Amino acid sequence: MQKEIIVIIGGPGTGKTTIIEGLLNQGYCCYPEISREVTMEAKKQGIEQLFLENPLLFSELLLEGRKKQFQNACDETESIVFLDRGIPDVLAYMHYIGDSYPPHFDACCKEHKYTKIFILPPWEEIYISDDARYENYEQAKLIYDHLKETYQKYGYDLIEVPKGSLSDRITFILENVNQSVSN
């Protein structure tokens, strides 16, 4: 049976984490977003906002964490694994801030290929900023554009998840996943 490693992407505040939690509650194997972990670890070391203070270091740590998630997903006994963000997200955010990155970032995106990418569009009605999400809604829309462009650059066909209830969004994702698994 082929392993399905499926990524849920979108700008900040689009419902990715809520969908991942909903899939987890339905018994699916899911890996959480790791940027908050990286941010919290940096705060313990006295760096208030690592992404703003040292974006390249933050991105290196995310890249390593997401590579580890990819490998762990490959090693899972489950045939379907959902991830909250993928490796190309790191490059999209670097593009968003206008920063450069070493060539191995690009190579990493080419070496680690996901089965399917679901993208969540900006949704102002549910957008909330917090300690780890410092972007405003306009910035979140720009990040969405960078995510879309970056994933498409690596050859992914993005499946946009319509706005709607959590149940409707999960049903949409699972119907698309089951359709490709049965084909």
Report on the structure:
- The radius of gyration is 16 Å and the shape is globular.
- Strands 2-3-1-4-5 form a five-stranded parallel beta sheet, with helices on both faces.
- The two termini are 12 Å apart.
- It has helices spanning 16-25, 35-44, 50-53, 55-75, 87-97, 103-111, 137-153, 166-182; strands at residues 4-10, 29-31, 80-84, 116-120, 158-160.
- It has eight helices and five strands; from the N terminus they run βαβαααβααβαβα.
- The chain has 183 residues and is an alpha/beta fold.
Radius of gyration: 16 Å
What is the CA-CA span between the terminal residues?
12 Å
Strand content: 5-15%
Give the topology string: H per helix, E per strand. Answer: EHEHHHEHHEHEH
Instruction: Please tally the β strands and state the result.
Output: 5
Question: What are the low-pLDDT stretches, counting only 5+ consecutive residues below 50?
Answer: none
Q: Number of helix segments?
A: 8
Order of strands across the widest beta sheet?
2-3-1-4-5
Question: What overall geometry do the principal axes of the alpha carbons give?
Answer: globular
Biggest sheet, in brief? 5 strands, parallel
Coarse structural class = alpha/beta
Helix content: 40-55%
- Averaged pLDDT: 89
